[in-house]
Amino acid sequence: MSTGPVPKPIAGTSSFIDDRIGAGNFLKRNLRKIFPDHWSFLLGEIALYSFIILLLTGTFLTFWYKPGMNHVVYDGSYEPLKGILMSEAYASSLNISFDVRGGLLMRQMHHWAALLFIAGMMVHMLRVFFTGAYRKPRELNWIIGVLLLTLALAEGLTGYSLPDDLLSGAGLRITQGVAISLPLVGTYVSFFLFGGEYPGEDVMARFYSLHILLIPGILLALISAHMILMWVQKHTQMPGKGRTNKNVVGAPFYPAFMAKAGAYFLFTFAVIAGLATFAQINPIWAFGPYTPADISAGSQPDFYMGFLEGSLRIMPAWEINVLGYTLPLSVIIPALVPMGIIMTGLALYPFLEQWVTGDRREHHIADRPRNNPHRTAIGMSAITFYGVLWLLGANDELSAFFHISLYTTTWFGRIAVFLGPALAYAITYRMCLGLQRNDAAILGHGVESGVIKRLPHGEFIEVHVPPADDIAAHMRGKEAIPTIAAAPDGEGIPPKGLRGPIGRLRAKMSETYGGEKIPIEEHHEEHPAISPADDDKSLTR
Amino acid sequence: MNRITAGRRHPLARYAVLLFALTLLGGVYTLTAPGNQSADAAIASGKVDDVAEGKKLFEKTCSSCHGPQAQGTENGPTLVGVGAAAVDFQVSSGRMPAANPGAQAPRKPLAPWVTPKRIDQLAAYVQSLGGGPTVPSKEQVDPALGNEAKGGELFRANCISCHNWVGAGGALTEGKYAPNLNEASPTQIYAAMVTGPQAMPVFNDSIITPEQKRDMIAYIVGVREQKDPGGFGLGRIGPVTEGLVAWIVGIGGMALAAIWITAKRRQAK
To answer: Who among A116, A242, A403 is closest to B268 (CB)?
Structure first.
């Protein structure tokens, strides 16, 4: 960090500030913070910059939006709705779309930015998961991330309900259905949320407060905490030449990383503004005002709620009646179970992994996904689980567009939601091992050079050359996944904590999860191109 | 003997009275009797040829499924009483003659023999079998005469649960589907409402009045001709395509941008 002379731009700026507010040392230290370079490390910034755009466009929208449920007769410039009775909320959303200068562009930017915000969080989270960047000391930041994702879903739900159009009304109806299906408290929760019978007069104003005040406030606080923790703990880096657990190799925050981050903000802005200009999103005028009596074919939630929609669609109509009370399993299970599995699983994974591997060390070097095959396989099977539910959320559109019978898609979903993750697990695990073998082969035998050599006794061999330094260093960054020592001591007694059924399970899982599956053996020798004997030994296990 | 008494005794008087009575009876009957007017009118106005021509066409192109007397077979329903409107809808949209039996006959390009005149002849024949809804007049389906906003409300209350918000269509059970309404002509939309083709229910005039039907046609035609205010419409089916675009264009584009700006990196010394 403090190597070499301080560059002039930093020295100048920091002394200017130091002379005035005495923060020079702080800036000198922090402006030269090193950030490692890898394209996937920028994915989280999509969410960060989308959030900034959301705040700005959202503020614009609040100038004209009215969260009222009083009925008004529409008298704006959209002809096909003229004279129709609608809520004040819907009328003001139409007003923003058609009669406020730039309003439609802002609405569309806000909506596209919301989609990119959540999609950006998802890809960022997957990057962190698959590279093991959530490991000690970053578990808390990972949990903040999971909270952010959960809150973002709530922010999205409250946000797309606000225009009070027919599509969002369908979503609101399902929300109410889930609330009222909860055992014991359901009716109370529903009446509390809607201020009486659905839909009532209060829900828009309440969602509005939540959407523009409470949830964004918490999001902002958590995002700040997320950034500060990342700054303090420093960013992880991919294994490579000269990179250790004790250093960070990359570019300094000022000027190199700042320029890249600034450019990336502009890219985000360009993509969002470009989409908002050329691609129509949430055409509320086409949906019409919400009335509880109307429902449209193809009613879908925004993509991040799609997995809940899908689980609701493939759920069989189960219902239990106990002592005069109805327990609608067909609503409770799809609403709570998949979300619970995914969010709880995400939050607990760092701790479960620690428990299984017994690894309490700090990690600042990220894993390549192939080098922890079980983790990668678990991640892929979770993606498959989520993906099948997400896909089935659109089963009516798939059915109509691809001419597949609707019931066929439902049954496909019911089977695939269980079979898919298992298949994904097995396939991913084998692929990781295959890729590890490939790495081992490159390190052990080098890269095929394309040169065939004839030996004096007539045998042909292909000359292998050692891989380039940086690639070799990247591959050699792999280390064995720790396991807990489960072997019994001299008297045949297993170590403390590994006795009993849970202890034995832990030992078994640790043995499976950890260890070195494909060791790297370095030996440089030329070997026959034709005889496969040597290859066989190292490549199949 | 005054003039009236003389007239009553005129030799032609009995014929005049008979003619008057017959005209009255026929007129009242024509005004009050349900259905059949068109066929009767066709016969009366010398269009009886249409029925004969229609019968020939029917025997050639339709009778294999609907039976030689249009009484219906295992492969096709009876056409007695479906009316000229049903024929006009099915044949002018290319759904009939069906190419192969399936869950639902799709709209397809018209066969070369199908001309408006031949459709009228077939329609006249089927109408003559047992009456039924007739083809609406031009005025009945003129979008310009309808109230778009009122039609929109009716459309949302009655149609979108299958046909989607702006008529993009949607899936039904067992391989059936509600087609998109972009290609349907005003007459076809009207005819579909009064005849309830395939999986569609019938919206007869006591459920939705002819004026209301015209309002709905005005709305359907109005929104489908509308230029999307927000840019490319993405099929107008809502969040499914929007999500797809957010991931492919949005996240895909941003990933490419990330790869691009990190492609040049400082090498470790």
So the answer is: A242
